[in-house]
TrEMBL record:
GO terms for molecular function: transaminase activity. The keyword Transferase applies. Coiled coil: none annotated. The keyword Transferase applies. This is Alanine--glyoxylate aminotransferase family protein. InterPro entries: Aminotrans_V_dom, Aminotrans_V_PyrdxlP_BS, PyrdxlP-dep_Trfase, PyrdxlP-dep_Trfase_major, PyrdxlP-dep_Trfase_small, SP_NH2Trfase/AEP_transaminase. Gene3D superfamilies: Aspartate Aminotransferase, domain 1, Type I PLP-dependent aspartate aminotransferase-like (Major domain). The lineage of its organism: Bacteria, Pseudomonadati, Pseudomonadota, Gammaproteobacteria, Oceanospirillales. Pfam families: Aminotran_5.
Length: 395
């Protein structure tokens, strides 16, 4: 007979999900009510306001899609790309490739700007391609590339798109809550994110926001949106303002309780303080890793604080080390993807997993496990270097 499932206690420091705070777990255990209950509708309005705060936007169409970040991605592309549309897609890791898939599946033409994994999107390459075409409908790029730990210059890319009169579609799955993100100030037209990274809510919800320019494109479509569930003109009947809502789908009630609490916690901390916290603990982790003799895989000026790519030392068995960390310390770190598989570890410092306790545990566990494998590292230095970073946080 199959019995109840009891998951092991883990410390999650991979590329996501991150540790979910006890307050969020407690919120999810509250009584389920109907998805059209007046009390739930009031909470929905608060979720929208809290997302607007986190995204730094006043866009009325800001809402959580009842599905993971991949569905948020599809929601942006399926509403904004029509057959024949030319879309510049920037790829410098795994997730730019998924953008290309979306453009092509909805009948658009993806004009690719490709940069090496571990580098940022090239502004000059994008400009050169825009110069060659006068009918670009949108520029799509990943702000924080989860597969590499690289942050591209979203502000500059959005300014470039505005100069050439096209929309922007931005993947902010890993950036929301972890690094500066200014939807209105930068002029982002459509953005999707996830809840399981720096928000530290459970997976399964994707915040999205659409500017008025993006909504004009949706309204002016000459073909019907080829997805019923993700059609923004339909779902806004449920997520629109006011108490009167049209049934669209049964929302994941308890999961949205969790997102609400995670966003309340972010508001309590302050979004700019959250950005600073991620930067502080990143510096401590970096200093500890480098004192140990390990190397960061991404240049400092484009490095994500919340997703740290670390070069695997020569002779170390990647899979065995990660398995040993999980078994001996209950600690999860991520493997490399695609071109970086077997070459890097991805260590997450996201949301509730971004604390001094997490940094010190990771450094100690990693050092001990590397020494057990016979790796050529400097022992006994990492913790002191990290502690020094906390003592001198501005350095």
């Amino acid at each position: 007979m199959i019995k109840s499932f009891y998951p092991p206690l883990r410390t999650l420091m991979g590329p996501g999900p991150s540790d979910v705070h006890p307050r969020v777990l407690a919120a999810m255990a509250k009584p389920t009510i109907g998805h059209l209950d007046p009390a739930f509708i009031g909470m929905m309005d608060e979720v929208k306001q809290l997302l607007q705060y986190a995204l730094r936007t006043e866009n009325p169409l800001t809402m959580p899609v009842s599905a993971p970040g991949s569905a948020g991605m599809e929601a942006c592309f399926v509403n904004l790309v029509e057959p024949g549309d030319k879309v510049i897609v920037c790829q410098n890791g795994v997730f730019g490739g998924r953008m290309k898939e979306n453009v092509e599946r909805f009948g658009g033409t993806a004009l690719m700007v490709e940069d090496a994994w571990g580098t940022a999107v090239s502004i000059e390459k994008v400009r050169a391609l825009m110069e060659q075409h006068d009918d670009i409908k949108a520029l799509a790029f990943v702000h924080a590339e989860t597969s590499t730990g690289v942050c591209s210059d979203a502000r500059a890319l959005c300014r470039l798109a505005q100069d050439y009169g096209c929309l922007t579609i931005v993947d902010a799955v890993t950036s929301l809550g972890g690094v500066e993100l200014e939807v209105d100030q930068w002029g982002i037209d459509a953005l999707y994110s996830g809840t399981q990274k720096c928000l530290s809510a459970p997976p399964g919800i994707s915040p999205v926001t659409f500017s008025e320019r993006a909504l004009d494109k949706v309204r002016q479509r000459t073909s019907r949106t080829p997805s019923w569930f993700l059609d923004k003109t339909l779902v806004m009947g449920y997520w629109g303002g006011g108490q009167k809502r049209a049934y669209h789908h049964t929302a994941p009630v308890n999961t949205l309780y969790g997102l609400h609490e995670a966003l309340v916690m972010l508001q309590e901390e302050g979004i700019e303080n959250a950005w600073q916290r991620h930067a502080l603990h990143h510096r401590a982790l970096r200093d500890g890793l480098e004192a140990m003799g390990l190397q960061m895989a991404v240049a400092a000026d484009i490095r994500l604080p919340q997703l740290n790519s670390v070069t695997i030392p020569e002779g170390v068995d990647d899979a065995q080390l990660r398995s040993q960390l999980l078994e001996s310390y209950g600690l999860e770190i991520g493997a490399g993807l695609g071109a970086l598989a077997g070459k890097v570890w991805r260590i997450g410092l996201m949301g509730s997993s971004c604390t001094r306790r997490h940094v010190m545990l990771c450094l100690d566990a990693l050092e001990n496990t590397l020494l057990e494998q016979g790796a050529d590292i400097h022992s006994g230095r990492a913790s002191a270097a990290a502690a020094a970073a906390y003592t001198n946080p501005e350095q």
